[in-house]
Amino acid sequence: MAHCLLNQNAKVYGGARCPGIYSPLVQVLREQGWRMEQLPCPELAFTGLNRFWAVREQYDTAAYRRHCGRLAAVVAGALDTHVRAGSDVVLVGLEGSPSMGVCITSSDPQRGGRPLWPDGTEELTEGEGIFMEELRAELRSRGIAEPRRIGITHQLPDHDATTERTRLEAFLRN
Amino acid sequence: MERDRRSFRVALVADRFINPSPGEVDAIAVLLEVDWGVIQLPTEHYPKEVAAPLLEQVAEQTEEFHRRGYDLVVIGGHPGLDAALASAGVPQLDHIEAANAKELRDFLRRRPLPPAAKN
Fold first, then answer.
1. Position A120 confidence tier, pLDDT thresholds 50, 70, 90
2. Which of A41, A108, A156, B90 qualifies as a cystine partner to A3, CB 3.0-4.6 A?
3. DSSP codes of every residue in A107-169
């Protein structure tokens, strides 16, 4: 699961939706008997806690991809251990994230310079985050079957807790 | 924009306290109650070549929280954690091997307000 789902302290300032653990996800995972393992936060390690809000294009540099690739290799090693043991593994990302998005990321090719922009949702767009891309590439290169994936929606403007719970329950049951 | 709700408190938690066997201490339940975030330590049964780079990541992320004045504690621990933290320049963190939920809750509730939360 994405790091911030167990640790909202890792979020960019202004983005923490709860003090620490995102309990709705933990609740559903435990009800259905899943173990939890936390992914590293690629943005925290690269740009730190005082980073600005950023879109995918701002992170999409060779250096950030190398960083994500290094983390993906670490994660793939752990994931491989579980796959070899015959465990069912799923990835839980974060929709809207430039790094951890599964189906929705954030995009604005023009964003840059002094960080002044109005609140809004125009940056949300279909696509996955950079770390997720690098992780899939790493798994492919190792011949590890790609786990099923789902993204948590709690930072999207149309987030609905009941809908998310239903979606999660159905996903984890499959 | 919504108010940021972070707690400025992060616990480095052994896997056995996050995915506890029946009857063992469930740190997640306690941490939810007292508003702490989690950095999960590698599962104890990972081979060293898997655990070591994961610990390196844990240490790098912990260093950032330490530098910014967040409160940090270790619940349970992991062989190699102290060395990884030292390599990242993180001083020895307060540590608990919680025997039960109450002990863990009391330990966390006694923590002073972290510097980052005073800003």
1. low
2. A41
3. --TT--SS------STTEEES--HHHHHHHHHHHHHTPPPPEEEEE-TTSTT--HHHHHHHHH
Q: Is B4 within 8 Å of A81 when comparing Cβ atoms?
A: no
CB-CB neighbors (< 8 A) of B68 in chain A: 48-50
pTM: 0.94
CA distance B54 to B56: 5
Are B35 and A20 within 8 A, CB to CB? yes
Q: Please report how the helices A130-142 and A62-84 are oriented relative to each other, as an axis angle in degrees rounded to 10.
A: 50
- The interface pTM score, or ipTM, of the predicted complex is 0.96
Choose from A51-55, A88-92, A110-114 the range with maximum mean pLDDT. A88-92
A49 vs B46, B50, B64: nearest CB: B64
Nearest residue to B66 (alpha-carbon basis) of B113, B10, B119 = B10
Instruction: Answer whether A14 sits within 8 Å of B18, measured CB to CB.
Output: no
- Cα–Cα nearest to B75, from B54, B57, B98: B98
Contact A20 B54 (CB under 8 A): no
Place of tokens 């609905």: A160
Domain ranges of chain B: 1-8+26-40+50-73+85-112
Pick B64's closest partner by Cβ from A35, A44, A73: A44
Q: What is the mean pLDDT of residues B82-94?
A: 97
pLDDT tens sequence across B43-70 = 999 999 999 999 999 999 999 999 999 9
- A51, amino acid identity: R
